[in-house]
Write a structure and sequence with these properties.
Blueprint (H helix, E strand, L loop, with lengths): L1 H25 L6 E5 L14 H20 L6 E5 L8 H8 L8 H4 L9 H5 L5
Parallel strand pairs: 1-2
Helix pairs in contact: 1-2
Length: 129
């Protein structure tokens, strides 16, 4: 339960809490936006089976953005979710996929400082074939 609680504290609760704390400042901004890195809401069982706790935590972030988009529409605050096309290596993903603690170094991450970084937009800008 500690891992479950941690995932929900960081993802769902963190997104909600930080977003709400920023609202007074965003109401004064010229072009206010909140952007969460969270998935589209797809209730297909394939997303829940292998890692239900992680999927629930990430979907809660998406639900927060959906709700806040409507709640703050009149204030002109845009709330959106972005889901990268490729995976992002995090400790949570490593654990969800392997069940191992920590994040093992990935080939692309080992020499991060010596190589030109690859940006997601380079991949996303390519049309599907």
């Amino acid at each position: 339960m500690r891992r479950y609680d941690l995932m929900h504290q960081v993802n769902a609760r963190g997104t909600f809490l930080v977003s709400k704390a920023c609202i007074p400042h965003l109401k004064q901004a010229q072009n206010p936006h909140i952007l969460a890195l969270s998935p589209p809401l797809d209730l297909s069982p394939k997303w829940f089976g292998p890692h239900v706790a992680y999927t629930m935590a990430k979907y809660n972030m998406s639900l927060a953005m959906l709700g806040m988009a409507e709640e703050f529409r009149a204030d002109g605050i845009a709330c959106n979710a972005l889901w990268p096309r490729t995976g992002i290596a995090t400790a949570a993903i490593e654990f969800a996929l392997t069940g191992k603690d920590g994040l093992a170094p990935l080939p692309d991450a080992r020499d991060h400082g010596r190589r030109r970084p690859r940006h997601l937009h380079e991949r996303l800008a390519q049309p599907d074939r």
